[in-house]
C-alpha cells in the first residue's frame, strides 16, 4: 500500500558547480528515462513542476578558490525556495539535478523544515566523493566538491547561511556511503570534523547490509530521511553517464540493496538525484538505471517478501 504523499519533481538544469559541462541535461534525461511513469507505477501521485530558472554557466576560472560563486548562490536559493515550499505543502520533493552543489539548497530547506517541525533529520549522502572541500584546500575550485562542508558551516557566508541559520547540518546528522575519492586536504578536515563515512573499503569488509544497518541506526518515526543520490556513487561500469567516474563503486545488486534497505525504513521524505551527465552516457543507460534504483527507494523489491 502506498503511504507516501504526492511526489513532486523539480528540475534544476545546471552544471554551475561542476568541472564538466553536461549535468544541465540531467533533468530531461531522467524524464526521458520515464521517472514520472515509473513512480506512478508504484502507486504514487506524481506532479512535475518543470524546471527552475537560474543564471547560465559562464565557464570562468576560480576566483578566491570558488568557481561561479554568485551563480551557485542564485541556483541554490531557487532550489531552497522550491523544495521548502513543497515540504510546507506536505509533498515529497525530488530534485532532478544538475550537479551536486544544488544539495546545499535542497538540504538547507529540509533542515529548516525539520527544525520548525521539531523532527530529527538524517541525510544519506550516496556518493563516490566526500564533497568536503573548501576554497583553501580545493584542487579545482568547483563548488560541487564543497556542499557537505558548506552545509556543516565551512565555506563562504553566502552558502553557509543560505537559510539564515548556520550550520544547516550537524556532522552527526549525515552518513556518507560509497566514498572512494577524497582529496588529501579534504581527508584531514573530514577526520577533524568527525564525519560518519562508510567508504568502499569498509563496505567491502563488512558487507552492504551491515553497513546500511549502521548508517540507518536511530532512524525512527520522528525522523525525516533525506537521500542525496549522486549517480557517481555507482560503479562506472554500470553507470558511465557521470562527469567524475571513480572505479570500485557499488554494483547493480549492491545498489539495489542500499535502496531497498532505505525504503524499508518508510521514512524517506525528500530526494536529490544529481550529477547525471548524458554527454558521457550510452543510450541513456545511466538515467534508466537511476530511475530503476529510485523505484526501489519507493518500495519496488526484487525479493520474495510480503
From TrEMBL:
Mn(2+) 1 binds at residues 100, 127, 129, 131, 230. Belongs to the arginase family. GO terms for molecular function: arginase activity; manganese ion binding. Keywords: Arginine metabolism, Hydrolase, Manganese, Metal-binding. Binds 2 manganese ions per subunit. Pathway: Nitrogen metabolism; urea cycle; L-ornithine and urea from L-arginine: step 1/1. GO terms for biological process: arginine metabolic process. Its cofactor is Mn(2+). It catalyses: L-arginine + H2O = urea + L-ornithine. This is Arginase. Mn(2+) 2 binds at residue 232. It is an enzyme of class 3 (hydrolase). Pfam families: Arginase. Gene3D superfamilies: Ureohydrolase domain. The gene is rocF. Its EC number is 3.5.3.1.
Amino acid at each position: 500500500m502506498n503511504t507516501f504523499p504526492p511526489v513532486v519533481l523539480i528540475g534544476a538544469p545546471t552544471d554551475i558547480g561542476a568541472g564538466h559541462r553536461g549535468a544541465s541535461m540531467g533533468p530531461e534525461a531522467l524524464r526521458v528515462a520515464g521517472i514520472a511513469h515509473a513512480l506512478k507505477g508504484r502507486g504514487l501521485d506524481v506532479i512535475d513542476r518543470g524546471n527552475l530558472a537560474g543564471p547560465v554557466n559562464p565557464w570562468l576560472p576560480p576566483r578566491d578558490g570558488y568557481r561561479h560563486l554568485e551563480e551557485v548562490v542564485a541556483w541554490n536559493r531557487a532550489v531552497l525556495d522550491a523544495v521548502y515550499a513543497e515540504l510546507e505543502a506536505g509533498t515529497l520533493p525530488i530534485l532532478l539535478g544538475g550537479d551536486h552543489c544544488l544539495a546545499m539548497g535542497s538540504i538547507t530547506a529540509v533542515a529548516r523544515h525539520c527544525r520548525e517541525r521539531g523532527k530529527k533529520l538524517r541525510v544519506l549522502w550516496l556518493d563516490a566523493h566526500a564533497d568536503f572541500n573548501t576554497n583553501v584546500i580545493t584542487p579545482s575550485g568547483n563548488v560541487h566538491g564543497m556542499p557537505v562542508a558548506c552545509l556543516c558551516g565551512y565555506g563562504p557566508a553566502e552558502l553557509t547561511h543560505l537559510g539564515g541559520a548556520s550550520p544547516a547540518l550537524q556532522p552527526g546528522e549525515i552518513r556518507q556511503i560509497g566514498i572512494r575519492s577524497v582529496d588529501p586536504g579534504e581527508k584531514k578536515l573530514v577526520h577533524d570534523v568527525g564525519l560518519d563515512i562508510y567508504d568502499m573499503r569498509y563496505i567491502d569488509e563488512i558487507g552492504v547490509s551491515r553497513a546500511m544497518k549502521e548508517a540507518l541506526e536511530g532512524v525512527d518515526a520522528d525522523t525525516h530521511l533525506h537521500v542525496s543520490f549522486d549517480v557517481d556513487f555507482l560503479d562506472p561500469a554500470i553507470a558511465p553517464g557521470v562527469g567524475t567516474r571513480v572505479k570500485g563503486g557499488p554494483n547493480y545488486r549492491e545498489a539495489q540493496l542500499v535502496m531497498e534497505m532505505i525504503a524499508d525504513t518508510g521514512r524517506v521524505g525528500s530526494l536529490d538525484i544529481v550529477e547525471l551527465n548524458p554527454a558521457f552516457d550510452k543510450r541513456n543507460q545511466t538515467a534508466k538505471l537511476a530511475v530503476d534504483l529510485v523505484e526501489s527507494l519507493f518500495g519496488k523489491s526484487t525479493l520474495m517478501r510480503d
